[in-house]
Amino acid sequence: MAKHDTDLSLLFHALADPTRRSILTQLAETPARVTDLAGPTGLRLPTVMRHLSVLEEAGLIATSKDGRVRTCAIVPEAFSPVRTWLDEQQAIWEARLDRLDAFVMNVMKERGK
Amino acid sequence: MAKHDTDLSLLFHALADPTRRSILTQLAETPARVTDLAGPTGLRLPTVMRHLSVLEEAGLIATSKDGRVRTCAIVPEAFSPVRTWLDEQQAIWEARLDRLDAFVMNVMKERGK
DNA sequence: GTGATAGTTAGCAGTATGGCTAAGCATGAT
DNA sequence: ATCATGCTTAGCCATACTGCTAACTATCAC
């Protein structure tokens, strides 16, 4: 349960909110300013800022400020721990199903004797 | 932003908790009773029950009661909306990067004239 | 410098989350 | 019939989340 775990919690939590997901989708299209991101959501700036903080702390976006404009961009690599975790889970239950298959095959073979 | 969206929120939220993820991992190995799941967590039964409810409402596990024992099992297909969403996002930003590539190539070609 | 623009900070309100205890209700074992 | 087991329900507590407004800072345009 190392930092690895914390990362995943941050990631999943960041992705659990529809507003944040739609912001991510928008950023997947193209980088954008905070105000541009706020527009479609219909939320107030401070609220959107909070969502952006969550996304940034999860590492899903990166932001930089130029003058008074903050530009946000997606960080595609940030999704990979999620994929990795999903793959791990899948590997575990697939291995189990394989063993189950083997067991069933064995039973059938025994029956055949 | 239909039910699809709600599903994703439920899924991501369910996955955002370390306890719930470790329960899922345990269930990926093999189905288990509530008490068996509670053991490793060190949490009290009612607390674990709550986590199980969250997982079940997200569709990640299925449970059935036989006598006084409730057995929980993972639902592997339940993960697929997550994968699908990740794939969609990836497709979007990959398309963008492709366009960017094309643009750069074009600029270089123009320069070559 | 004045004013508009883009973010930012502080703090409030309502709800949700994650833990607990205590008590209840079946079911299985003796 | 009694007792232990396995789960369930109800309800409490502290904290965290998501929205808001109001007020502030920093830049850019004139």
Which structural traits does this protein have?
homodimer, 113 residues, alpha+beta, Arc Repressor Mutant, subunit A, 3-stranded antiparallel sheet, 70% helix, DNA-binding
Structure description:
The structure is a homodimer of 113-residue chains. Chain A starts with a helix and ends with a helix. The first copy, chain A, has a single domain, classed as Arc Repressor Mutant, subunit A, CATH 1.10.10.10. Chain A contains five helices and three strands. In chain A, helix 1 runs antiparallel to helix 4 and helix 3 crosses helix 4. The first copy, chain A, has a three-stranded antiparallel sheet. Chain A is of the alpha+beta class and 113 residues long. The mean pLDDT of chain A is 87. Chain A binds a DNA duplex (30 and 30 nucleotides) through helix 4.
Computed over alpha carbons, the radius of gyration of chain A is 22 Å
CATH architecture of chain A: Orthogonal Bundle
Based on helices, strands and strand pairing, what is the structural class of chain A? alpha+beta
Name the assembly state.
Answer: homodimer
- Residues in β-strands, percent of chain A: 5-15%
Into which percent range does the helicity of residues of chain A fall? 55-70%
Overall tally of domains of chain A: 1
**CATH superfamily heading of chain A:** Winged helix-like DNA-binding domain superfamily/Winged helix DNA-binding domain
How would you write the strand order of the largest sheet of chain A?
Answer: 1-3-2
> Which stretches of chain A are low in confidence, meaning pLDDT under 50 for 5 or more residues running?
none
What does the largest sheet of chain A look like? 3 strands, antiparallel
Total helices of chain A: the number is: 5
